[in-house]
Each structure stands twice: as C-alpha cells, then as structure tokens.
Here is the input.
Amino acid sequence: MSYQQFTNDFQFDLSYLKLPDLFYSRVTPTPVYDPQCFKLNTDLMEALNLTPSQADPLIHILAGNRIPESTTTIAQAYAGHQFGHFNMLGDGRAILLGEHLTQKQQRYDIQLKGSGQTPYSRRGDGRATLKAMLREYLISEAMHHLQIPTSRSLAVVKTGESVYREQVQEGAVLTRVMKSHLRVGTFEFASYFGTKEDLLMLSEYTLNRHFPMHISSDQAGLRLLEEVMQLQIQLVVHWMRVGFIHGVMNTDNTSISGETFDYGPCAFMNRYHPNTVFSSIDSNGRYAFGNQPRIIKWNLTRLAEALLPIIHEDKDTAVQIAQRTIDAFDALWDKEYRRMMLGKIGIAQEQPNDLQLVDELLQCMQLENADYTNTFAALYEDIEWDVHPLNTPSLKNWFEKWKQRVTQNEEGLATARIIMKQYNPVFIPRNHLVEQALDLATQGNFSLFDQLLTCLKTPYQYQDSYRSFLFPPNVEFELQYQTFCGT
Ligand code: AMP
Ligand code: MG
Here is the structure.
C-alpha cells in the first residue's frame, strides 16, 4: 500500500485555524530516531474509516516524522487551574495532526502526544514514555468499552529514543483521538489573555462544533455553560459508577465535549472508600474519589467566570445569571447520581427509603473494606467466588433488606438483575493487572496486555476464562500503590 493511499485516508480539515492566532502556534512534530509501531488500534481505524495496515508510511505519520500534505499541524494554547492555581499552559508535548472527517462527516482531533517541544513546553522535553502511553492506551480503551465518553488511542509508536525521567525510559508517541481538545482551560485562556472578541469567537466556534442547536441563541454563552455542565455531570456520574479516579482534574483536563481525557495518574478503586487517592502528587486528596463531584462543580465555576463577558454586558448581571446556573448544579447532580446509584442496586422506580438503602450499603462497604466492583457484581452475577463478596455480617444483613425491597413485585429480582447488569461492570482494569501488563509489554511481551484489552471489550459480561481478573490485589499492594503524572 502506498504512502499516498494512507494520506488520502485521513480526511483532514483544520477548522481550528479559523480562530484568532493567539489560540495556537503552527509547529511541526520533531522527528524521532527509529519509529516502530508498538500498538495499532485496528477497531478504531475502522470506525474512523481508515485502512488498517502496519505499513511503514503510517508509522512515520503517527511518529510525527512525516506530515501529510493535506494538513497544517498546530499546538493549542490554553491555560488552567492546576490544583487550584491558575497557570498559562498549552500543548507542551502534543501536536494536533489534523481534524479528521469520517465518511459520516463526524469530526475528530487526531493528536500526537509526546511529539516534541512546542512554544508551550516551558522546561519540558515534549516527550512521553512508552509505559505511560501504553497505560493511556489500555485505560482509555477500557473506559470506551465501559461506555464512558473518552478520548481514544489509535496507536503507540516507539521512538527508539530515550526519555529522561527518574530513570531512563523508552520514548513513545501516542495518537489520541477526541471529539475536540477544547477545555475549560481554553476558555480561561481566552478570558485572561484575549479580548472579548476572541472569547466570542471561541464560543461561536465551540457552539458550531459541539452544540450547533444554540448557534443563533441570544444567550449563547449561558447555553454553552449549561451544556458543558450537563455533559460533565453525566461524565463524572459514570466515573462514580465504575470507581474511576481521574487523579488530576485540573481545569485544563476538563473537556468541553464531556469526554474523559488526560490519563495521567488515574486509577480504579478496589476497596470502597471515598477518600481513596493513588496519585503521588495529590497529598491533600483534592482529587480523591469522593471529591470528584465537588471538584467538577468548582471547575464549572471557573468556566462560568471565564464566560462572564459574553453572558451579559453588565458585569453584576452576568455574575447573577452565571451564579444561578452554577447553583443549579447540586440538584442536577443529585438527580443523575441518584438514578445511577439506584440502578446499581437494580431499582428503576424510586420509593421512599431507597436512597437510605444505598447509603447503608456504602457504609457497610466502607466498614468492611469491601471491593466496590465485586460487591455490586455479586448482587446479580452467578460467579463461584473464593470468598463471597457479600459474606460479612453487615453486608448479609443489608442483602436481606435489599432482597425484600426488590422482591416486592413478582418479577422483582429478575428485573433488578437486568438493570444491575447495565450499571455494574464485572471487569475493570485493576491497578495491579495494569501494572503487570505494562511491565511485560514494555519488554515486548503483550500477552497480558492483549488479554486485558480483550476481556475489557465486554466488561459487563462475566467470562470464566478471565476469572483471575476479578480479584483485587492484596492489601499490601493496595496500600503502597501510587500513580504518577510523570509521563
Ligand atoms: P498534564 O499534567 O499532562 O495535564 O500537563 C500539564 C501541562 O504540562 C501541559 O501544558 C502539558 O503540555 C505540559 N507538559 C507535561 N509534560 C510535558 C513534557 N514532557 N514536556 C513539555 N510539556 C509538558
Ligand atoms: Mg493536561
């Protein structure tokens, strides 16, 4: 297959260039020494209408060594609040190869991550490690199959170059695919460093790309805030559903399209505890599992502030309007979160005391150090457990109460099972398995990595052949496990 055929496959159309210059820098990836394709996502290639192949030219494109003639490559400017502090940021080690249009005219950013320095690199090397990029590949694909909106991973290409972190590591470039890389931080950037006109143009661009139904609204800024709030509430409710801890919910990592992205120190919770944190740099637990709803509200408040100039000409009026929208967060959150938690215990029609049942379960789980995933899975899935997840005094007690509740109607338990299966995965990417898989994969042994990927394509389906993936790690692993941004 010729190079020309591949470049024709990418249907690039860079709409981002319509934005004023301050929003990006034209920059090309820095070529790498010896690109080798390490992982190629053929399913995703097909979904994007790209021709699957391991051929050399595609590797050169995805390594950043060759730019298709049809595109201009850019690094995007953005700012953001990192752990509560405002900073100027930008793509310091990522370059947008182009916006690809599928046959159905769906637009996706094709971004190379780890592709060299840009004007926003500050003191960073612009590179990424093989292990971190494989981790992003594995977890983002798992999230996709858990039916959670997320960036996806098209390929990991080894660069043949060393990357210097705490230790010398192998370098890699990940191809990240996303509806867009617009973030809360892009709006903060416009608001802090641009004019009102720049902010207006960004907002128009965003409405066109993600919320075209509001293009002609005379309250476009407000509609934008409401839409992002709705998408982010749905997203974080999903995270709470499967025990996902993002780990670095800075405003630059909060997408406008409502997709999970920036897989750095993320992890999955095993034993249920709202204070669970794995990220080595999150010493105050700002981004702990149970804090995620509070933090997303905080991030949305930063978006509201950035949008003030286009919400209303009069500042006080703008603040009032924005505040009203932010004040609606709690009720919207509660509604979605309740629906989800009740779904996890098989209840579709809420009755009085049902929420108390959820609270009691969480309290029992916390008390018993119960595994979050397996406790829910044990409610509906017939698995031969070594130790039954519900076999503790308080959980047994709760189970009886719950059974009474769901068997009030005749078809109760059967219906509850169907509901629970939709909300509760059996398999998640357990931290210890991910680490083992990455250690092997970086040595060239993809057996565990590929098994995990395959198993996690149907995470709601129990399969006996993957039984060993059910179990959480031992307590020692759990207590010492740390994740890193170091990337
Ligand atoms: P993150 O923690 O991945 O959200 O990144 C925060 C900021 O640091 C972004 O502006 C990144 O582009 C930048 N950054 C992270 N790692 C590097 C690196 N190795 N070289 C240059 N910039 C980086
Ligand atoms: Mg980031």
Remarks:
- Residues 220-242 form the longest helix (23 residues).
- The first strand starts at residue 24 and ends at 26.
